[in-house]
Amino acid sequence: MVIGQLTLKPASLKPWHTLGFDVKAKGIVNVYSEADIFHVLSFAKQQGLSVLPLGEGSNTIFAKDFAGIVMRVCIQGRRIEQGVDGRLMVYGAAGESWHSFVRWTLAQGAYGLENLSLIPGTVGASPIQNIGAYGVEVKDVIDWVRYIDIASGEVIQLSASDCLFGYRDSIFKQQLRDQIVITEVAFRLSSVFTPNLSYAGLQGSHAADALQLSDYIVGVRKAKLPDPQTLGNVGSFFKNPVIPAEHYQVLKEKFPNLVAYPAEDGYWKLAAGWLIDQCGFKGTRKGNVGVYKHQALVLVHFGEGCVADLLSLAWDIQQQVWLRFSVRMEIEPRIYPQ
């Protein structure tokens, strides 16, 4: 399918999502501008088809073939404007590779995203999931998000305070799910590097500058997580569960080695990987899918597998963690259709 003369042709989504299952869509199209998006939306409306915006497919599970048009958002563009009090306004088009964008900001002397290095995906996907790692969430630096309403075609700029950001959550994942196409994100970054080493694993990094800290984080991530180019995965498969203090105290008494971190309002965030590991799943395999041998939080696809096996394995994990810890494990990536 190409812009200009749109025609429908069933196509495999295998190359376009990092789990690499051989599912299909009625059509796949790349869009490089907002004008392209409007053209695709108009065509889809005429054909009575749904449209699914997709970045790098690094947080997506296709449970079955998609009976619509997958629109790969490939819009490119980066720019910086001087703000006030050492602040910099940095703008990224939705199709920009996230890690490439992060490294570019650091090279421009714009700081605040270094802890989010090597997270797969695109700039446009970052607010949907409110991506976070090593003590930083992207909500901390987002100023606004620009998107197109699929039904009305209206272009809207939503301030960060209206994005309803939460832990791996946002208005784009809830109230606006499947209703919008993000085209640009604006960030408030700093011209002064102030390292955030609050995460325990970073306190020995001794980074002299932001690029060194980014390099350190890249090394840590590569050591713990498989490269989706060689082993299909979506990174963390489950959210780290957040539980009340009372529940945490009960678990801590029963499991003294429990890995947990203080969260907001007296809650505790549990290390999901530790819970899965304690249930004996690390390194296990089910058909052509399994649990990564170096990080139990990551489910992997070895190739030629089926989505049903992956979801069955995830269900097994959820059941065993519940039986042992009375903790519910929530799947982090989006499952289509659902």
Automatic annotation (TrEMBL):
Protein name (record): UDP-N-acetylenolpyruvoylglucosamine reductase
Function summary: Cell wall formation.
Naturally occurring in which organism (per UniProt): Zooshikella ganghwensis
Active-site residues, Swiss-Prot/TrEMBL: 168, 236 (proton donor), 332
Annotated FAD-binding PCMH-type domain residues: 21-192
Primary localization class, coarse: cytoplasm
Pathway note: Cell wall biogenesis; peptidoglycan biosynthesis
E.C. number: 1.3.1.98
Protein encoded by which gene: murB
